[in-house]
């Protein structure tokens, strides 16, 4: 597959993934669909906005850059062979890789630590020091009195963020290599006998 088609394909995949991260982070801010818990009762990992900033905006930029790199070059069908846009896509993909790593690490910690919730009149990270993993013991999940069903909410959304950020990391890495090849070889769609 030539570098231009690959860039376009990767970009068109990264854009919806980044929007999915933004949506998941927005839902983490409203456990159970209610805004009553946002006043100091959400976990630090939710407030770090890893899905919005890291997996969202920082990956949206390379997604758009990759789609643009897959289009016609700045000089048309000849001359630079789309190398200018491919070079921009290299830097954008490196930026997106950092964003995906940020989203993955914060979401992983959020999943491991568990939500901040009310148990016996005390707001705290009650699952942080549970022997073993609270993820395997679903009977503990109903111990949180408020927000209702917050453990299900957090586990689902943080798991989604971990999965999507892993995909984004792979795709940004693929585009980083692809765009680097595009800088050196040009876009093979421009010429029939291109070496790429």
From TrEMBL:
<dbReference type="GO" id="GO:2000045">
    <property type="term" value="P:regulation of G1/S transition of mitotic cell cycle"/>
</dbReference>
<dbReference type="GO" id="GO:0034618">
    <property type="term" value="F:arginine binding"/>
</dbReference>
<dbReference type="GO" id="GO:0005765">
    <property type="term" value="C:lysosomal membrane"/>
</dbReference>
<dbReference type="GO" id="GO:0005886">
    <property type="term" value="C:plasma membrane"/>
</dbReference>
<feature type="transmembrane region" description="Helical">
    <location>
        <begin position="44"/>
        <end position="69"/>
    </location>
</feature>
<feature type="transmembrane region" description="Helical">
    <location>
        <begin position="90"/>
        <end position="111"/>
    </location>
</feature>
<protein>
    <submittedName>
        <fullName>Transmembrane 4 L six family member 5</fullName>
    </submittedName>
</protein>
<dbReference type="Pfam" id="PF05805">
    <property type="entry name" value="L6_membrane"/>
</dbReference>
<feature type="transmembrane region" description="Helical">
    <location>
        <begin position="150"/>
        <end position="171"/>
    </location>
</feature>
<dbReference type="InterPro" id="IPR008661">
    <property type="entry name" value="L6_membrane"/>
</dbReference>
<keyword id="KW-1133">Transmembrane helix</keyword>
<keyword id="KW-0812">Transmembrane</keyword>
<keyword id="KW-0472">Membrane</keyword>
<comment type="similarity">
    <text>Belongs to the L6 tetraspanin family.</text>
</comment>
<feature type="transmembrane region" description="Helical">
    <location>
        <begin position="12"/>
        <end position="32"/>
    </location>
</feature>
């Amino acid at each position: 597959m030539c570098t231009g088609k690959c860039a376009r394909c990767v970009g068109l995949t990264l854009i919806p993934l980044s929007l999915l991260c933004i949506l998941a982070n927005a839902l983490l801010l409203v456990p159970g669909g209610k805004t009553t818990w946002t006043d100091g009762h959400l976990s630090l990992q939710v407030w770090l906005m890893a899905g919005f900033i890291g997996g969202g905006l920082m990956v949206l930029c390379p997604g758009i850059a990759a789609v643009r790199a897959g289009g016609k070059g700045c000089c048309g069908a000849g001359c630079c062979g789309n190398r200018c846009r491919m070079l921009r896509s290299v830097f954008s993909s490196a930026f997106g890789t950092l964003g995906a790593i940020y989203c993955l690490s914060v979401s992983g910690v959020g999943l491991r630590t568990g939500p901040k919730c009310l148990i016996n009149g005390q707001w705290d990270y009650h699952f942080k020091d549970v022997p073993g993993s609270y993820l395997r013991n679903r009977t503990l999940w109903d111990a949180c009195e408020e927000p209702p069903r917050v453990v299900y909410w957090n586990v689902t959304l943080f798991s989604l963020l971990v999965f999507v950020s892993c995909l984004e990391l792979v795709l940004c890495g693929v585009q980083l290599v692809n765009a680097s090849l595009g800088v050196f070889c040009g876009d093979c769609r421009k010429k029939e006998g291109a070496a790429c």
